[in-house]
Amino acid sequence: MDTIHTKASCRQASLAIRDTLDIVGGKWKLVLLMTLRNGKRRFRELSREAEISPRILSKELQELEQNGLVSRTVCDTRPVTVEYALTDYSETLDEVLDALAKWGAQHRRKIIL
Q: Which of 16, 63, 66, 80 is 20 to 30 A removed from 23 (C-alpha atoms)?
């Protein structure tokens, strides 16, 4: 079925894409979401796995938490540890993450050949 593109529908789609990129755009947010798909992680684990500095990681996690995509749990341990996990709401991005991973693999094959 062909989609009819109007000026209004294109403007609305553009706004929706900008809103999405405001939430998950940048170098690290999608990497963090993909890493957390494998289960909850402690702060230092995330920093190592994503190869991101603690300062930037803290900022990115705070923004993901503010947007309801990541939960933060302070564990009752000595020393205090903090675990991060995906929220149920983050599952609404599953199709997007899968599509990006698929396109990225396809693009890599095209460029390497």
A: 80
Helix, strand, or coil here: 47? Answer: helix
Class (C level, CATH) for 27-112: mainly alpha
pTM to 2 decimals? 0.84
The residues, any chain, with a CB within 8 Å of residue 23's CB and separated by 6 or more, are 29, 67, 69
Helices 29-36 and 43-50, interaxial angle, to 10°?
A: 120
- Residue 2 pLDDT level (bands cut at 50, 70, 90): low
pLDDT at 23 over 70: yes
Tokens describing residue 110: 């095209």
Q: Are 70 and 87 in contact (CB under 8 A)?
A: yes
How does pLDDT run across 64-73, given as a tens digit for each residue? 999 999 999 9
Measured distance CA(86)–CA(40) in Å, rounded: 7
